[in-house]
DNA sequence: GTAGTCAGATTACTAATGTAATCGAATAGG
DNA sequence: CCTATTCGATTACATTAGTAATCTGACTAC
C-alpha cells in the first residue's frame, strides 16, 4: 500500500502507453500518443518529465536517448485512484457505486454472466 | 443528459452537504463542513460562490441572507463523474472496474448478496 | 569544421484549484 | 446616532495542470 502520487488526467494517457509497453523512448511515447491526441511533442515530453519528477515513471539514463518505464503497476494505480474516487463521490460506499453501474445499460449479457460468476466465487475465498 | 460542469474535489464536499439538506445558508454549510474539515469560513464561502458561478448551485437572493441549493441531483452528478472517471482510468471498460472492485475485500456478505440479486434481475428489464 | 538537427533541460504562460483576506453596505447594539 | 458585527462582493496569492517554446550541448551531414 505505497503512497502513489496523484496522476493527472493527461498524465494518465502517458501512463497507459507505458503500461502497454515499456521501456520506451520519449519519441516512441510521442508517436503513440499522436495517434489519439493532438498534443505537441513538447507537451508530451513535459508530461513525461513531470511523471518522472513525481516518481511515477523511471528513466534509464545510461543510453544516449533515455527510456522511460512505469514505477507502479496499472492495477496499483487504478486501485489507488478508484479508492480516492469512491471516497469522494460515493462517500466511500463501494457498493453504492457498483449498484449504480450494474443498473446502467452499459453491461452486456456476457459481462453480467461474468460478474455473477465472480460474485458466486467471492465468499468462499474468505 | 445535461452537460454538468466539472466539480472539483473540495467542491464535492460542499455539494454533499447540500444534497443532504437544502436550501441552506452559507453559515449552515460552513457549520456543517467544519465538523469534517478544517477549512476557514471564507474558504467555504469561496467554494459556494464558485459552484454558483458554475451553475451547479442555485441561490435564493430574496432574503437578506441567501440560501443555496443544488441544481443537479446527486445521482446525476455521480453518474457524470463516474463516467468520465471510468473512461480515464479503465479506458471506458465499466466491467473491468466492477470486477476489480468485486474482487476486493471491501464488500460484506450482505453487499454481495444484494449485488447478486440486482444482477439476477438485470437482464429481464431489457 | 560548420551548420543544421535532435534530445534533454529550462523557462513560459494560462486556467483551475486550494485557501484565504479585505472592502463595503446593511444591521444590530448600546 | 455612532459603533461593532455580519454577510456578500471583490481581490489575493500559491500550486497544479494544460500546453508549449526556447536554450544548449552533442551529433550528423555536408
Question: Can you walk through the features of this model?
Answer:
- Two copies of one chain form a homodimer.
- Chain A is mainly α.
- Chain A folds into two domains: 1-92, Orthogonal Bundle (Arc Repressor Mutant, subunit A); 93-126.
- In chain A, 58% of the residues lie in helices and 8% in strands.
- The first copy, chain A, contains six helices and three strands; from the N terminus they run αβααββααα.
- In chain A, strands 1-3-2 form a three-stranded antiparallel sheet.
- In chain A, α2 packs across α3.
- The longest helix of chain A has 17 residues, at 74-90.
- The two termini of chain A are 20 Å apart.
- The mean pLDDT of chain A is 91.
- The A-B interface holds A 9, 12, 16, 75, 78-79, 81-82, 85, 88-91, 94-95, 97-104, 106-107, 109, 111-112, 114-116, 118-120, 122-123 and B 9, 12, 16, 75, 78-79, 81-82, 85, 88-91, 94-95, 97-104, 106-107, 109, 111-112, 114-116, 118-120, 122-123.
- The structure holds a DNA duplex (30 and 30 nucleotides).
**Shape assignment of chain A:** elongated
Classify the secondary structure makeup of chain A into a structural class. Answer: mainly alpha
Assigned CATH architecture of the largest domain in chain A: Orthogonal Bundle
Q: Mean pLDDT of chain A, nearest integer?
A: 91
CATH fold-level name of the largest domain in chain A: Arc Repressor Mutant, subunit A
Find the count of extended strands of chain A (DSSP E, 2+ residues): 3
Q: Could you tell me which chain pair has the largest interface and how many residues each side has?
A: A-B, 36 and 36 residues
* Number of alpha- plus pi-helical segments of chain A: 6
What's the Cα radius of gyration of chain A? 18 Å
Q: Report the helical percentage of chain A.
A: 55-70%
Note the main sheet of chain A: 3 strands, antiparallel
As for the number of domains of chain A, it is 2
* CATH top level assignment of the largest domain in chain A: Mainly Alpha
Order of adjacent strands in the largest pleated sheet of chain A: 1-3-2
Ends apart, CA distance between termini of chain A? 20 Å
Spans of chain A of at least 5 consecutive residues whose pLDDT stays below 50 are none
For this structure, what is the CATH homologous superfamily of the largest domain in chain A?
Winged helix-like DNA-binding domain superfamily/Winged helix DNA-binding domain
